[in-house]
Structure formats: structure tokens, C-alpha cells
## 1
Amino acid sequence: MFHSHDDDDTQRTRFSRRAALIGIGQVLGFGAVATKLYQLQVMQGSLYAPMADDNRINVQLIAPVRGRILDRFGTLLAGNDEGFRVVLIPSLAGNVRQVLERLARIVPITPDDLDKLAARARRQQPNVPLIVSNELDFEQISSIGLLAPQLPGVQIETAASRRYAAGEAAAHVVGHVGNVERAALDDDPLLRLPGFRVGRTGVERGLDERLRGRGGSIKYEVDARGRIVRTLSQTPPVKGDDIALTIDTELQRVIGERLSREKRASAVVIDTQAGDVVAMVSVPTHDPGDIVKGATAKTWAKLKASGNEPMLNRAIRGQYPPGSTFKMVTALAALEAGVIDLKGRVDCSGQTELGGQTFRCWKRSGHGPCDFHRALRESCDCYFYEIARRTGIDAIAAMGRRLGFGQTFDTGLALQKPGVMPDAAWKRGRYNKAWLGGETLLAGIGQGYVLATPLQLAVMTARIASGRAILPRFVRPDVGETPAVADELGLKPALLEAVRRGMAAVVNEDGGTGGSAKLDDGKALVAGKTGTAQVSRASADRNGQDLRWEQRDHALFVAYVPAGKPRYAISVVVEHGGGGGATAGPVVRDIVAEVLARDPAGRPSYPDLAGAPPAATGGRRS
Amino acid sequence: MSYRDGTVVGTRSMGSRLLGVHWPVVALLCLLAGIGLVAQYSVAGGAFTPWADKHALRFVLTIGMVLAVAMTPLRWWINLALPGYALALLLLALVPMIGSEALGARRWLAIAGMTFQPAELMKVALVLMLARYYQWLGADRVSRPQWVAVPLVLIAMPVALTLKQPDLGTAVLFAVCGLSLMFLAGVNLMYFAAGAMAVVTMAPLIWGRMHDYQRRRVEIFFDPEKDPLGAGYHITQSKIALGSGGLSGKGFMQGTQSQLNFLPEKHTDFIFTTFAEEWGFSGAVGLIGLYLMLAMLMLAMAVGCRNQFGRLVIAGAGIVMFVYAFINIAMVMGLVPVVGVPLPLVSFGGTSMTTIMFAMAIAMCAYVNRTQGLRPRI
């Protein structure tokens, strides 16, 4: 017979026991997952919450409009052009390559650029727009609009491009903008924005932070494919400050034309009261507009080809031996130290001996006995060798620094060079050698180690003319702001006056080396000092005759005007121009005539950038 | 060989049978499917299409099936056990030859224009077969070696066939479910101890003989976060979703990870994550509690049954439900490898719901007929 398979009690009891065990196992199993869940959700919840936000929130920056740069009368130097550019958002494009190929039929894209763009699309975040082309004409825009369905992810954006209204005239002062250098990446996330431009030179660079403004942002919620789902919040960008400079564009233009007769030259004009740099010109120059329009290799090659470095702002980056223009420094140092008085004479035989070395005066036949006035007027080297020797280098260097040498000025103009104002400690630090007596003599006539920029020369001249520690500035203060008066230099008025009389004699007295700077119409008296900076031994030996251009002396001239009541200080350096009086003097004369005619510092500047024009404010009050 | 009904056969009215249905379990099933509906609605961005409506329709149809099957005579299912198992095994064996491939695994059979997974049929068939086997075997022979070997073979065949597909999740389900039923049937514990010992001693040996690349695969399998771009991406996003849900959740339809598609398989295998992101730990632990309650009720149903077939069928259905839920929840938290097991009644998918509900249906039938004794007919 078959077994009875009807229920039996042992089987049933055993099942119940084991079912209880299975039940315990299930409770433990679910208990384990619940515990893990507690860990994840409750204990570590705060850890995961921001990760979820990182996933879903995408922040897009909005570039601010860059501030404008104006000249002292409100003439636009650098502004913004509204242009159109075409961008591609890879996450929306799908097949980036295909879309680019279609786009290439409308906008010129070389196969090379196409490869580069496609490669970049793969590397970067899919939401970041790729700039395909920066310059679109209206025909291209309408073609793109027409073909929009076949061009997914292609968008036309308005993009401001920098426009340099004054072109070459203010190129070096204003500078230009360019792509962000990797080394310059600071905390501002704007700098990582594709196509964002920052100032690379000049005021654009020096005052970049004020001009730049603050970026805005849009927070988007995006899905896993990077597509925008909705906008979460929006912060509008803040426009950069408009900045008015101290320069006078028209004056810049005229001086530029005058300097262009020389191969390489620069000039600085400073208002001797406020320190406003009303003109700073360097030739050859360039049009910054060419550079911001996407400087092609060709543009650069053209700029390089001349060999004269048109991008270089010689007024702040050219470092020249000041030559005889330095003699005021030596004189003031000596007079203040009391090693000679105004009547003290030095007999010039045409050369001086020191430690077996011969130091020549530029006038080989000698000046004979010279007092201070005559020595400055006729630029007698022997006189200055002698008083330099008596004064010592450290006191000369101290006076040089007081008058503006060996330093840069905090002006908003980037990339100034400091020049060299040597003393014993400097030489120890630089060459680890002791200072030699002969080097003091060379420094005393602005040769040897001494190097100065045209800006420093103008500052020195303004300081002597005003007796105050004038600081140059490029940014015009707002109208109505009380001008800060520079500190006194602390030099004895009698000494300063003697130096000024000497400088006036350089231009206006017989025997003066700078007669060429005298105004033809005699409207105002010019005071100044010539400088002929020796750049090669050859020029000393052959006295300027039959030299190749690059062996010729630099021609320098510093001046202030009017001699009796100084208003403007001017420095001019003509590279390899030969004699200061012969070459630089006439340039100074022409500049002075123009400066006096325009009198930029004497005319009211306008508009007031801080607020509404004064008239409107007045109107509301009445 | 077939069974006829015992002494009380045919005497019960339809009404008394309906009263015999375990209504709290039916209510739990409805609750779980309702949670599924809410989750499907939310994950579609607040829409009944494309998932929630189908989900609801399927549940209504299958719960109807549960009640209908509960009214059928139990002997139908006893008699179907062996042919059903044989058919399921045959189809499973046919899959590698005529099945269609999806996602790198061959699991589907196309029959009369409908695709169908033999593994799903096998889930029910295996439970039925083992219950049938032990019903026939009787208590005295359960632990004899030859009678232990038979169910082991019955389990091993579908496990081997599904592993070949490869479908590890289902293979584990077969193994766990089958061994649990052997355990419940009263097989001597020594066999289980010996089996466990064998696994523990063999594992290092096998590990030692593996190549480096094979080991790396095993490591990634057990720790998917070592492969952040593959399965690790799923787990990482799932963990972010769970963690950012916190205690109380982001709110209905506010789950960013699921709504914005950072979560893969958000409406199917990772529906638990979707739910837990929006309803937080409190909601998720409540959901786990429902599954636990269901598992406990199923065991109680089984214990209350007067025949071995019914007990094992009910327990088997409960274990299938538990293993599904456990593996799925543990998987989305990264506790176990990603094997593609849905969350019963909550995940979207007709196949899994049909299987689960079919198992529930036969279990309910066994419960309705719990007081029957069963005698074999020669």
C-alpha cells in the first residue's frame, strides 16, 4: 500500500519550527538593509545632499560689459561694439561634427579649425558654449536662422568686442585686451569663460579689475544629459567702471605725428601741479584694433617685421642712460651736501683724471673755469665729475630717488620698468663688487649704471619745476574733487631756484646747449636740459661722426614751461638720435608750442563720470 | 500519477472559499501596488503615462487572477507541477538556441509574437515541483541521501541554465528559494552544514586558481564602486539619491536624481531609490516594513496549512517575494552586486508582476484549501 501522505504532526511541527527560523532570517535580512538605509539617508544624508545639487545645478556665467576708457575731455578711447558671434552648445548638438560641417557652409571654418572645435567639444563640459566664429555679418546671421532646424545647438549671441576709437594715437597708454593667460588665472570665475578678454597692456591691464565689472550668473537645473530643465535663479552682471584718463587725445595725435619723423622715440608731458600725464607717446606705434580683432599670425609678423617693436611703450619700458639730463640731480645732491656752493668754480681742461683713468668732457678743448650756472648751461662734464666725486654716489642716488628715479609709479599703467638708480649697496647686491670711484663720476653725468625711463625724466623735471614730489597719474579724478597737493621735496628754495635758472639758461642764454628748444614766437620761455647718452664706445671715440645708426647716441631733452611759472614738464627721448640739443630740442620746441596752444590742464574736463552732468544736478536743485 | 482531492472536496461553496482568502495579504498586495503606482506616477514627471496607468491595469488584472485561482481546486496545481516543471525546463534549455538577445544576455523567447522569459515560468514551476515532491515523499524519507539528491538536481538544473544566460539574480533566486524549501521540508540540518562547509573550503581554492583578470571581474562585481563608469555609476547615483533624500525625503515628485534622469532604470530596478529619495528614510523604512509584514504573514499562512504541499507552496511564494525585495533593496544601496532584480509590485514591468502574482495566486489557492488532507490516487 502507498504511504499515507495525509498530514502528520511531526512534519508539521518541524515545518513550523523551521518557518520560524526562516522568519528570523527574513527579519534580520530586512533589518540589515534598513540599518544600511539609516546610515545612508540619516547619518550621511548631509554628505550626499550637495552631491545631488552638484548633479543638477549648472551655473552659467554672464560676462559683464567692460567699462569704457575716455580721455580727459570725455573723448572715447576704448568702447565696446555690439557684435554677433555664433556658438555651439555640444550637449544640444548631438553630432557635433556633423553640425559643424553644416555650419561651415555658412560661416568660414577651415577643416583644421573644425577638428580643433570637435576635439574641444569632447573635452569640455557639454553645456559650455564653444565659440565657432566671432564675426558674423547679417547675411550669415539670417542664413543660420533659416537653417536653424538643421543646426541643433547652434546659437547666435551678442558679444561685445573692444573698439579702440583713438587707434594709434593712444595705443600705448590705453593698451589692449586679449585672451586670459593661464598664469593670470585668479579666483574670478569670469576668467574661465570662453572668449573672455582681459587687459593685456596699458591701462586696460593696470586697471583691469575696475574695468572688468562683476560677472552675473544664471543657475540652471539640468538633467543627466546636461539639458536645461529650468532656470533657478539669475544674478545680473555689473558693468565695469568707466574710467577717464588724464591724457588729451588730440595732443597725443599731434605729438605722435611729430615723433614719427624719428625712427624710435617717446615723449611724456606732465602737468607740474597735479601730476596729470596729459600726453605719453611712443613711436613706432600700432593700432590696438588690429590686435583685438583676433591677431592673426600675419598681423604679428607685420608688427615684428619692422624690428622697431611697435608694441613697446618706450615711455615706460624704455630704459636709457639719462646722460646730462641727470646733471640736475648731481647738482642738487652736491649743493645740498655743501661740497660746493653756487659760486664755487671748477676748472675744465677738457678732461679729468681719477685713479689713472681719464674722464673726458664732451668739449675736448675744455670750458675753462666754470661756476654752477655756466656748468649747467653748457653742460660741462668736468664740473659734474668733480662735484660728483666730492658728493659720493650714495648721496647722489638718494637725490635721484627723491626726484623719481629707480622706481615705478602706482598709476594704473601696467608694466612700467623701474630703471636703475645705482649706489654702493646696489652694486654689491647686483654684482657682489665694491663701488669704484670712477663709477661715481660716470653716474654724475648720467652714464654708467644709471638708467631712466622717459616717464621718470618727466617726473624729475616736474619735481624740480614745482619743488614738490609730484606723482604722475593717468586716471583723472572726478570733477570737483579737491586736487591733492603733492608734498614739498624739502629742498632749499635757493638751490632749486639756482637749478631752474640754470635750466632756463640752457635754452635761452648764449652758450646754452638747448637753444634749439626755444619757441620761435617767444610766447613763453622754455627751461630745460639736453642729454646725449652715449650707447657705444665708438661714439665717444669718433665724436658722433660716421656712425651706424644703432651706434649713435640717444638724444634726450627734458623741459618745463613756462620757465617763470611752470605748468608742464616734458621729456623727449630719441633713440640713436645723436645730440640732445640738435635732435631732441626741436621736438621739445614743437611739443611745447602745441601744449601751450591746447593747455589741456587749464581747460575744464568733462564729463563727470561719477554722476549726471553738473548742469542737470543744478537744475534739479533749483 | 495524479492527486484527487481529500475528504472535504467539493462540499464548500464559493462564498466560503472567498471567506477563506487571506484578505489582509490581499490588502498588503494592493498597498504595495499602490505605492508602485505613486512612484510610477512621480517618476514620469507627474503623469499616468507611460508607466503608472499600465502598472495599475496590470495589477488589477493580476489581483483578479489571484482571486480566480484561489477559487480553483488545489489538485489542478498539484497535477500541473511535474508537467509545468518539465515544460519550464525545456523552454529554459531552448533559450540559448532560439532565444533573442537583449543587453548582452539571452533570456527571451518569442512565442506567437509575444516575448516571454522561461525563467519567470520556472520560478513558479520550481516551487510547485518541490512542494509536489515533498508532498509525495512523506516525512520518513526526507533526509535519505538519494531523496536529498533528487531536489538538489531539480534545483541545480534551472540554476545552471540561468547562469549560462547569464542571469545571476534569477539563479540566486532559484537556489535560495529551492534550498529554503528543502530546509522547510525538514531535510536534516547536517546536509546544510556540510554544504556550507564545502562552499567555505572550495571558495579560496577556486579563487587561487583564477587568473588576475577573472579576479578583477569578481572584485568589481562585489564592489561595483571600483568601476565608477560602469555599474559603479548606477550605484553612486543611487546612493546620492538615497542620501540626499534624508530622513523625510524631498517630497512627492521632487526627487531631483530621478526626475532629472541621473538615476538609471529609475522606474524599474531602481524604483526603490526613486521612492526613498522622495519619501526619505521614513517612507523607505515603511516600505521595507510592508514587505516584512507580507513575508511574516505568508509564513503564518504556511504554518496554518494542513498539508505539506500547501505549506511549501505558500512558503515558496513568500520566499520568492522576500528574495526579490531583499536583493533589489540591497542592490540599490550597493550592498549586493547589481543583478537586475525588480522590486515586487512596485517596479514597472509586466513579467515580474505576472510571475509574483501567479505565485501568490497558487499560494492563495493552497491557503483557501488549507484544511484539506491530500491522498495520492494510484
## 2
Amino acid sequence: MRRALPAVVRAASRFACGVAFGLVIAIIALLVFESRGVLTAVFLTQPPSGLPIGREGGVGPAILGSLLLGAAACLFGLLLGLSVALHLVFGRPSAFEAALLHMAVRVTAGIPSIVLGLFGAAFLVSGLRMGLSLLAAGIVLGIMIFPFIEVRAEEAFLRERTRLFVPSLALGVGRYATVFRLVVPACLPDLASAAAQAAGFAMGATAPVMFTGAVFYSSAPLGPLSPVTALPMHLYVLVTQGISMDHAAATALVLVAIVLILNAAAFLLSGRTRRP
Amino acid sequence: MTSRRFESVVAASVAWLARGAAALFLFVALALLKESLPALSHASLWGFLSGSDWRPTLPDPILGILPMIAGTLAVSFGALVVALPVGVGAALALCVAGPRTRAVVRPVIDVLAGIPSVVYGFLGLLTIVRGFERLGMASGESVLAASLVLGAMILPFIVAVCEEAMRDAVARYGAASLALGVGRDEMLLRLVLPASRRAILAAAVSGLARALGETMAVMMVAGNSPLFPTLLGRTETIPSLIALEMGCAEVDSLHVSGLYAAGFVLTVLLFALSLVAHRLRGRAGR
């Protein structure tokens, strides 16, 4: 028995690896299979229709809404994440302040997304009277993804500190002149990679936008203060109201495809700056 | 603008933006606490945590979330039981796999982390819940179904954390153990696995934290009845309670306040867990 144990462990670990691998293949295959016949150009461009609504037609406005939400989330996430990363790496914070900032980022990353949604509903939607809007949902999603962006940006900035920042300072160039002319351009692929991955994460989130800006049916948004429809919300309603399982599968496939394309872009971009 | 002014203006605005961003979590916590106070003073903190009845729409609402706390914990620990063996096993296989195998398998497993939770919920409903019903269960929506779905969701994180530590261990002991004539499987079992104990624990804690805060996937397959959890019975978690009732609760009522209080309890729980995870990771790295 003692002799056989290592071989058993090896077999079990290979099996586990196969399970994890197979799971991904099975998920994609199932989505493709269930959405056969539905996924057409009409589905990708038209608004939902039929009775109850969503049984026919497509997800055109939801795709647009999700892209807008992703962009808004990125905007706020980058603003928050980059300012923290820049200040930590180039702003000479005291050790105490740096520790506090790191702790704050970690804690923010740990807030469950539904709680961020609650915060948005109480403070942004009713407190600041933004109403259910692209703006409120974008801010909530931005808060959700900013810790991720901060961590990746800080890594990238730290790499360039010795290579670019210190020599440039030694030549008498100002701190933030160096940062904006040299460091940020050099880190751009990494920052874009982080932003793309974070945008994908934000676009897939349902809980934070349910009470802050996403509705099941709306036309194209008229401005930042109007509500939007989003793919995850559309999928959730189609499934839980039992409206149409094949439309739900096609919606899920579109959502997964968008997220995976963003993740693939992030993967390729992050490889580009990794020098020896 | 002179360059010196540019420098000081930019430095000051970056610093204050950064501090503002860092203060956001305090802001979130305070907003949450403010909204939960009516419910907590109505039911008392202890009554809220230990009460087993949730009847928020009565004229004199009864607010107790013990079944939801139990449901959240049951579903999340269930997910860990599902994901930990598979994740640790996959990490063991990957840490000694050739670079080519790794280059294919790792990104594929990482795809699991990218799939949105609402899609997991949909797939769980389509496969697991339907499958259970075909097997003769009255309702496939159950703690077990939720644990299986959540297990798949936290799997990639467990693989990532464990594999990193195991590769370190292989780098440290691999050559020496090979030179002593120890077989690879023997090394995995007797050296790599024990050496990554802390990392496995850290992976478990952070996986648990992820599972506790998850909303959509659980909500779609757990059945959402405020009952104490049994393996094959329905249950309801704190996030799904909030997501389900927030839309239909009366504005400014004790009901809404109770939902905020439930969110507050969840956040405090997760905060404690993230402290533990952080300390474990710090030690695992040493």
C-alpha cells in the first residue's frame, strides 16, 4: 500500500487535471449546442421581441449596453487604480501611508459585488439622485475593478522604476514629467492588458448593476443618466422567467465570447512588455 | 505652466485622488452601516444574527438571518469540498508537467475564471439541476447543486495559488531528490505536497471568501427558501436574499434596512477571512 501510494497520487492528479480541462471544453460545447439555430446576424443586432419579450429577436441593445458599461467601468477603474499606483510608486508616500493604501486596496477587493450594488443603490442612485443609470452602474463597476487594475499597474510601474524613472530623475527631469513622458508609455501594453481583463470582468457582473443601472428592456441609452440593458441581466431574466432557453444559451455564448476575446487580448498584450 | 508648478499640481492631485480611492471602502462600510441601523436596532444585533425567522413584510417585521448565514456557509464549504481535491490534484500534475502541456492546460483552466457567474448559474440549471430532477429528486435546486457550481467557479483560483507554491517546491527539492534516486511520484507525495501545506490552506481560505460573496450562480441553483441547509434540500444565501428581495422591498422600510444589515454582516465575515488569507499568504511566501 505504501509503495502504491505515489502512483495512485499521480493517477489521481492527472485525472483531476483532466477534469478541470474537460470542464472548460464541456461548458463551451454545451453553450454552442444549446444555442444552435438561434445565433444569427439578426440575433446579434436586433432588439428582443416576441411575447413574452425576449422569446424572439436578439440582443443588439444588450451588447451595446454591456460594451458601454465595460467602458464606463474601465474609465472609473483606471482613474482610481492608476492614481493609487502612481502615488505608491512615484509619489514618495510614507511607509505608514503605503501600508494603509495597500490595505485599503485589499479590503476593497474583498467587498462582495452584491454589497457594492447595495452601496450604489443607497448612495449613488437615491442619495445623489443619479437614478438607475449608466453612470451609477459604471461607478459601482469601477470600484469593483479598481483593486485589480491597481495591482497590475503597480507591478508594471515598479518594473520601470529602476530602468527609466531613476535615470531620468538623475538627468534632472521632473518626477511626473518622467512618469507621463516615459514610464506610462513604456507600461502602456501592461496597462491596456489590465484594463481589458478588468473590462471583461465588469461586463460579466450582474449583481452590482441590478439595482444601479441595468434593466431588462430598454432602447439604446440616451445619455449617462439613462438606464441600460446588459447581457448578463438579459440572460438572468430569460432563464429565471423561463422565457426561452435557447435564446438564453445564445446570450450566454455571446457574453462568454466577448469576455474571452478581452481576456485573450489581455494575455497577448501582457506578453509584449515582458522582456528578459 | 512652469514645470515646477506642473510637478506640484500633478503630485498633489494624484496623492489626493489616491487617498480618496483608498477611503472608498470606509465610505461603503459607513453607508452600509447607516442603512442597516434601523433593522439592527429593531431586532438587536444578536437577534438579527441568531433569529431563525425572516418575515420582513409583517406590520412588526421579524428579522433574523441565521438560516441564510448557515446556507451561505454550507454552500461555500460544499464548494471547497468539491474544488479543493480537484484543484490540488490538478496543480500537482501541472507543477511537474512539461512546458508544452502547461502552456496548453493552464490558459484553458484559466478560462474558467473568466466565465461570468450568471453563465455558471444558467449552465448549472441546465445540467445539474435538470440532472437531479431526472434522478428523481423533487427539486434539483439544492445545496449540493450550488456547491458543485461554486466549486467549478473557485477551481481556477485554487489551481493557480497551489501550482505557484508547488513549482517553487519542485525548484527547491527537484534536483536533490532526483540525485538521491527518489522517484518523481514519491517526491510529489512526500516533499512537494507537505511543502505546499500553507499555500493549500491559503488557497482554501481565499476560495472560500470568493464562494461566500458569490451571488448569481448560487441564486439560480440553490432554490432560495430560507431553510436551514441540508445536502439535498433548498437553501438561501445572504447574497441571494439581497439580490432577490432588494427589487421588491418597500423603500425606506425595515425590510430594506434588514437587507443592508445582511450585506453588512457578509462584508464583516469576508473582511475577517481576507485578513486570515493575507496572513497565510505572507507566511507561505517566506
## 3
Amino acid sequence: MTGGDVPFCEIYDRFHRQVYAYCRRRARRDVVEDVFAETFLIAWRKMEEIPPGDQTLPWLYGVAYRVLTHQWRSAFRHQRLTEKLSLLGVTPVDLPEDMMIAGHEQRQLLTALSALRPTDQEILRLTAWEELSQAEIASTLGITVGAVRQRLYAARKKLATEYNRLERRRTDFPAAQKGGAW
Amino acid sequence: MITEEQAMRLLVEANPVPDMSTLDPSGDLLTTHLADPNKRSSEMTQLKSRQTDNPPGPRRRRLIWVAAAVLAIVVAGVVLTQTGDEAPVADTPSPVETATAFIEAYRGSFDVDEAFSYLGVAPVAAGLDTSGAADHHLLARFREATGTKLVDLQCEETNFASESTVVSCTYMTHDFFSDEMGLGPYGPTVDEFTVADGKIVSVAEGVGDVVDFSDPGGFSKQILEPFAAWMGENHPQDLDVMYDPYPNGWNITEESIPLWGQRLREYVADQAGPLGVFESARGLIVFRDGSQLKAVDPDDPSSVNTIDLPREIVATELMVAGWSADGSKLALTDEDRGLYVVDRTGSAVQVAPDLGGCCAFVTHAWLSPDGTKGLDATNNEIVIFDLDGGAVTQRVELDQQLRWWPVWAPDGAQVAFQGEGEALGIVDLVTGTSRELIGPGRFVGIRQIAWSPDGSQLLVVALHDPLPFDPDLNPLVNPRQGALYLVDIDDGETRQIAEGYYVTAAWSPDSTRIAAIDYHPDGRDLVVMNADGTGLRVLAEKAGGLFTGVAWHPVPGP
């Protein structure tokens, strides 16, 4: 049985909240709805490819991830859309509304996160925010479980290293905290 | 200083949306989205109807309760995490996973830095050999340039001790583009790794590897020796750079690596035939499907040949945009990366780095029929540039704004363009004069124009309904019904030949048939039809990847 045997509305009902949350965590609010809608549009068009059961949500996350990172662009809208997509960074440091409510440590952590390779960032986010298992992350990103384990192991180390590096820099150059020239 | 566990806990706390209960509880976001006329499309409307035709019933209410319960558990989990419980800790990779990751990086993706991150000691101390190259990075670049591909990698523990584990990895490789010549893979090669505390501390490369230079089915007899002989015959001036000594010693240097890649590409192309890597595309309809070009026989859709895209453009969104008249050069277009040409050796060259935005889903014929020039455009100017070096060779100023990119005529002496009001015009490049072929207002939403190879007609891919100024032509999210039209080059007489959700089309070399891609609401089809629109047949359905450009190879098959 594949997802194609389950009515689309049931898949939507069951997972739209998680997928919307996934999009909100990664995209600016003014484009979240576009990404969300395109994700389910693709899901609808690929109904017969949707895996059943526990694999459905990771599959939807995978679609949303690709929508976020491989936006198709139309011709006439190029300039406007490019500007729009430039706001679509997968790094959450680009989310000002969230930055404002987050504390210093969280902001610095997100900055450190943005220094990692995009796939490693996503592995960490899927672990911490979507709370996916390594097998589910592998399914989402289309890589092996072994690769996820290996990369998660290395990415956690690098995240801490990068955070500590930023912290040292902040301490060494206090003027940088104020945004002043030095 | 924070630990990995503390960093992960901070990441959990930095979740921008920790509580999903604040999100659109009615689940009507899609409906709201669709209410925006700028985002509405026929397909989305159908999607909406699928959603809203399923009003909340007992099952949905039950799901909401279940979702609420799950949410409560998630929130409780977050609270527990924030109150001091450890975030989930990743398992240390197994020795087999570590060794596998090393080989995949070192010999597969040629990412030496990633590979070395799996080492617990310096590369030299681990026993890694650079095989005569100055360093590992150089060796990796040589392997990449000479078409090394890792296949059938398998690792297993062969000896386990309390302090360390020995992992044996067996793999085959394609070398010198052997896969593209239908040869290889070669091997097996067996590498042994000693892994301690999650890190590789020792590498024994090529353990048990036996190279038989006399084996007629081996790498030496099949490629190494013939290539060296070909080099001696065709490029003797390069031998000193590439070999040390010729013919068995390889010189791996900054200077020699690109030359190795270039000469091997030429050798592979020569082995294939006059059209090189495009031999398998002769007379066929070519489109991109993921990392490959596919060439389908219009008369036998079950016959499909594949051509690997050059490595440098595999990860791009380039789509096919036409051939040179001799079939030796393939034009590709990407709105971000500009214009590329893949030649008969399979090498890709970028010829125009900045288009200023355009062309997604439109495969306008920007490559001149003789394969030496490209078409570019500004607001009111047609620009012709030399592919070799990019120098502008001609500018033709128009008395109106260009709406879309111009296309070459098959004689190379004329260009068709779209002007204001979607009028169609023809420019004579010899005289620099232009004439109107179709006046403003006849067409709405033109996606593409394509000149027939016999020079007598323009094929127009257009929509039925007017588009707003800021249309979303992305058919993936906004398929629109339209039609294919033929316009007579001499008198502008226009007739519709087919209806559908067409986004791009290409002529057969003899101008008797048309291939087109149809993004209808139920899927994506590559179709072929007679030039009068009759005899439509589907050649491929729902192909993956960039199923957005199509080009018919101009040289007939054998």
C-alpha cells in the first residue's frame, strides 16, 4: 500500500500542521504560505509516490525541504522573486521576528548553525525541532541512516565548536557587540 | 564553553515554532492562500476542492483530538528537556560507517577535508599514499578530472579488539571515463582501516589488489595503453606535461590536471564517433531527466538512450535549449547561471554568466546554428556575442521594448523576437532592419517561439487567457491551458494546431513533426505530433528532474 491509497484530504488533515510548522521554522512568514501550498501541491501530484504509515511525514518534510532549497522561478517575476527568495534562506538567522524574541544564547547558536553545511544544518534542525529519528531524517533527506549518524555526530561537534568560537570572538572584541567600528 | 549536549539543548530552545497549537487550527490555510487571486490557478483550485469537499466530520474531529494529545506530549517533552533532561544524544558511528564515510568522501565525492575529518591521526601517520601526487587534494582533483567513479563499495568488520576494529572495504572504480566508453568498472580494490574511538588511525590501501597489465579485459589494455598511444599520435606536445615518463608514469600537477581531463574527454568522444557523446542522441528527442540527458526515439518510445551530464553542471537547473545545426553542441539555459554549451566531448562551458534573469521553462534557441555565437538581449536591443571569449559582435537596436528573448532562424541570418503587446517581429542581421510579422494583441502569454528548420514557420507556444503583468509562468504551480500555433514567416497567417498545457516545444529536423512538453493538471507528458497537430502520441510521462526543455537532435540516425 502506498500513500496513493489514502485520500489526499486525509493526508492533509493529518499532517498539515506539522508541515506548516516545518515551513514556519525555516522561511519568512511572507513566503511560508507559498512554500506550504507548493509542498502539498506536489504531494497531491505525486499521490502514488507518497509512502504509507510512518514514512509519510518524513516524505512531506523532504518535499518541503526541496521546495525551500530549489525554488522554481518564473521568467517575468525573476527580479521580484529573486528578492523574495533571497529572504527564503534556510538558515533561521534570517528570521527577524524570531530573532527578536530569542535570547542571546539562542541567537548565537543559530548563527553558529548557519556556519555548518546546509545538509548538516537540516539534520540538526530535524533532530531538534521536528524530533525525527535518524531513520526518518535519512528518509527525509534521501541519504543513508549511516550517513545521518555520521554527519549528526560530526555536526553536533561542529555546532558546539562554532558556538564557542563566536563566544570567544564576542569576548575578545566587545566593540563588535555594539556594532561599532573598531 | 558549551558542550555538544548544551548546544543541542540551545537549538531545541531556539525552535521558532515550538508550539504547533498556535498554528492555523482550522486547517484552512490552503483555502486562505487560494483566495488570493495572485496565487490562484486551476490546479490549485482543484486542490482546494479536494480539501474543502471533505468537511470536518467525526473522523476529523477525532484527528484533532489525537493531534492535541500528541501536541501535549510534544510540549511536555520540550518542557522536560528545558528543565534539565539531556537532549537526545547521537550514537557514535560504527567503525564500518566511519570507514565507509571516509572512502565515499575520499574516492567518491573527492572531498579530502571531509575524509580527513574521519582520521584520528595525520594522513601520513595513517599510512595514506598520494600515489606520486604532491598532496591528497591534488590527487583528488586528478581523480575527479579523469572520470574516476566509485562503485559497489562494501565494508565489513574483519577483526574486532577492545581498543580498535579492523574494517575491510571492497570497491570497484571506473577510471578515465571508462563508464562512458562502456568499459569497466575495474578492481576490486580492498582497503583496510583500523578504527579506534570512532576515528581511523591506520589505512592500508590496495590490500589484496592485483593489477594484471596483460589482462585483455583490464584497465591497462582497455584504456591506459590505447590512450597513451592516441596521445602520442594526436597531442605529442602535451606528453611532457602529462607523463613522467611517457607512457607509464603520470605527472599529476596543477598544470597537468586540466590537460588530463581535456584530452581524456576528447579521447572518449573520438571512440564514440563524429558526434562524440551525442552519438546516442542522433535523430532523437532529448530532454533532461535528473542528472542525465535522455534521448527518446519518437517512433519507438521504449527506446531511450542516456547521456550523463558533465559533473560541473549535474547539480544545476540547466535545461536543454537547442542544438547547433551539426548536432555537436547542445545549448542549455539556466536563469541563474546563464548559458552553457556542452560539446561533443561532454564538457560544459559557460558562455554568458549573467542574463539578468529569464528563461526558466523556456528553451529559446539562443545558440547560433553554426554553434559559434549566442543571442542575448537588453530592453530594446538584440545582442550577438561570440561564444569564444564572449565579445559582442553585433547589436541591433529596436524601436520597441523586447518582451521575451529572441531566437535564431535556421539560416543564422535572421532573428525572431517578441515585442510590445506580444507582437512578433523579424530582424535581418545583415541589414539590421526589422519587420512586424504579427501585430500586438494577437497572442497572450507566449511561453516560447521556435523557428521551423525549413525556415518557413514560427511555432508559438501561448496561453488562451491574458496574463496579468506579473504572471507566474511556473507551470509546476500554475499550469495554464494554452495552445500551439503556427505562423507563416512570409505573411503572418496564423493557425492553431493543438490545445493543451504546453510549456515548450521543438521541431523535428525535417520540420514535419513537433515534440512538446505538456504540464497538464494530472501530470507531465512529453508528446510528439505531426506539424499540423494530428497524430499526437505520449512518449514519456511524469519524467523526473527538469522535464522542462526539449530539443530534437538535428542529425539523422545511422
